[in-house]
Amino acid sequence: MAHRRQQRAIMLQLLYAREVRDTEKKDDAFLRRELDYLIHSFIPVPLDEDERTQILKELSEVENEEIKLDNIIDELSKDWSIQRISLVDKNILRISLYELLSGKEELSERIIINEAVELAKKFGGQKSYRFVNGILGEAHRLFNGGEESKKATFDIPYEKMEIDRKVAAVVYSIDEQRNVRIGMVHDIFGYWTLSKGSVDENLREEESLTKKVKEETDWDIEVIEKLGESEYIAYPPDRGPVRKQVSYYLAKAPYRLPQLGRTTKGLDDVAWFSLDDILDLNLYDDVSKMLVKAIMFLSEREGLVSLEEETREKSREETDKKSDNE
């Protein structure tokens, strides 16, 4: 008989295979073929028919709850959406949260979390196990509030949903030589992104943003311009659906070496980049869009267009001078 850890590993590989190959969730034939392939090629302990049936049954239940599970993951991962999480980590969390929410008496929450960490160590990236452990630890804390927290209603009309407001900043600096740099933070998923945080109820958006950036980077910013807004619906397991509203701002700061805050979670670096360097960075889609807006605004406000023209003109002059000398 296969160990429970082995069954979880099989479920993880089946979920991963389905997403990588972009098959339909209800393609049972595909899952059975993949299961047979795994059993014959990699599984040291044979699975009997009951175990196969149990794995496929639980897999189907995870898939049926996928939207709910993904929204819980999205909420628990704070500022990183479900799209930013690797397929392996995401599917480990789906399986584990399904087990946590299913309320099976034979599965303690501590065991579920430990098993998820072991899966992350075996199949995930270098930092996967820490990320998985952190998300499930937060889920454990929330779910321990009692049965009611597990059964928060998700059937709430849009206009009656709670609203969480967040702010994010495209931070820039221009030195005496008119060199423009963009300040960004680096997250544990390998992306350069914007400093971001919740809006304090007692402060204006701009004040909350100034406070958050100071905490994360030690930069003292001057908020210049609002770049745009976005909204999405998240599903905290203890609250039900919540409307997340994000306001993006352009902010200016003196050019000085940044210092990542000690209490900052999910970030491991902070740095300045030239406009040319930004092109080579690993960025999220929303960050890329806001950077484009910011650079367009700066082109008018700080004269970046004329500066570029001066650079090109200077280059042409040097080329012409070189040709004359030849």
Would you kindly provide a written description of the structure presented here, covering whatever features stand out?
- With 326 residues, this protein is α+β, with helices and mostly antiparallel strands.
- It has two domains: 4-150, Orthogonal Bundle (N-utilizing Substance Protein B Homolog, Chain A), CATH 1.10.940.10; 160-311, Nucleoside Triphosphate Pyrophosphohydrolase, CATH 3.90.79.
- Helices cover 51% and strands 18% of the residues.
- Strands 1, 2, 3, 4, 5, 6 and 7 form a seven-stranded mixed β-sheet that branches.
- A hairpin with a 4-residue loop joins strand 2 (180-187) and strand 3.
- The radius of gyration is 25 Å and the shape is elongated.
